[in-house]
Design a protein that fits this description.
With about 150 residues, the protein is mainly α. It is built from 6 helices and 3 strands, in the order αββαααααβ. The longest helix is centred in the middle third of the chain and has 26 residues. The relative contact order is 0.16.
Amino acid sequence: MNVGKIALALWVVTVGTFAFYFVRGQISISTDQRRAIQLSVEEKDFVLAEMRSLLSSVNGILRGLHEHDMIAVAEGAKSAGMGMAVDASPLLMVKLPLEFKILGMGLHEDFDKLSVDIKTGLNRDQVIHRLSELTSKCVSCHQIYRLSSDRTD
């Protein structure tokens, strides 16, 4: 067998392995039967910080709705948009299951769309309805997944 065929075979195996883990992620089944995503301590902290930022954005939207300040509502939605998702490392993205990535990126896109729609005239009731739809994605994800690392805290 020549070197070219060996190199091609190794490349195919490498790409196939990467694709498998990109779709599957690094998961196991946790004691509560959710899918535990295996992350380093730093990666887990990063994802949890992003989740806290999303919750803070939802709080800003609700505060703006309470104060009848649709500019603040739109800003709260925008702060949870795709701009928030740009800092994730490629190594972290490989560890996350495809469904988790789709839910997360879809959520960021939905917040961007909500922000645009608010600026074009959504009323308070429509925003509340859309926010309910968005947060149902959060609930679904938390029912399916949990983050796991070697740290026990």
